[in-house]
Please model this.
Amino acid sequence: MCERTTASIAGIAMPAATPALPAPATGSRRRRLWELPSHAYCPVVGVCLPISALRRLVDKALGEQVMADDYELHCCVIAECKSRTPLAERLQRELDRRYASAQRQAALAKTTDDLGLWWASCQRGNQIAGGLWAVLTHPRCDVALEERVLSNIHMLQHQVGAAHRADVQRFAELIDENGVLARELGAVQQRSTRVIAEKNACIERQSADNMQLRAALIGKDTALASLRDEIATLEAGFPGLRTRVEQARHIEAQLARIHDLERQLLLEQHRAQSLQDKVADLAALSASVAGNPILAEPVLPAADGLRDKSVLCVGGRPGIVPIYRQLIERTGGHFLHHDGGEEESAARLDASLAAADLVICQTGCVSHGAYWRVKDHCKRTGKRCVFVEKPSVSSMARCLQDIGQSMPASTDAAVDTAACAIYAAELKT
Model:
């Protein structure tokens, strides 16, 4: 298929060929290229010589650059190798130079069988081209071995072609995959560049903050050193300054202690005043039992004064509220009571004020809101309101006496001494 009868390449005449000598039947001389069978030239030229090396040899042989394509060049070189031409001799020298090592290894085989075994080892390795040239030119290569070698090369070329097509397809797939990976790599590089830029910016900010903190620390150290120098100067100028400072701190602590004691003293004084009020109530109770004229003297409001009148008592200690009830009810009045905003609601106070005819307000036991609410209601309605400062039985008794003196006389009401006894029992509990 690759053979040509012409002896020219791309219109350039080749030198005249020398007739090929027949191969010797015996001896140790290696066969030359032009002594090989015609069907061996195609695999020898195609396998043993790359197309680039073959083109250089032809260009040197012709003295100019050959413009033929690879296939035409291959076919014309095969036609030239059938006889001993200058181009064939150049190819012979080039092949001997390229595969000298393989020829030396093949020369160790002294029989055809040994040469066949050596060719099999070349097939298993990577010396196919060198093994092909060394076996075909070996003096012990007979026709059978030659046919076997050429058939192996023929099948190997088919396999190489199929592998080449698979490699081309795989190469195209790898190109596509490489494009995808290149795009992904570009995206990753962009992200990496952005992240690195952000990290660098963060590092710069942290470096600036670090410098500011160092400057602030240096300033604080400088101020601390200056303060230490001032303290040393003050201590040197005022001997015993540290002792004085400690004494001043001790005085401040003592003053704080004195203030605490004064507050406790005031608290105890309030407690003592409360106890004194209780003692005064007990003394009033004792006086009533002994015939004290203040409590023994009956309260004499007129029969028409408090009789059937509603008297509202706002405030007062819970323990003496029953005594207030008995004192007022003995005069013929109706007793009403409100605690002054401690527990009972302000709405109930308004209802009690509306139902009362007379209001007695214990100012020491009511809230400010209840006090102003009572005062405002009595001012608007014109009801009489009596304010009592100390919530005690004696104060209530004097209040009732004042009310009785300002009203017509009556002989039906008096202070109930049994109520005082009840109050004394409650104080003991």
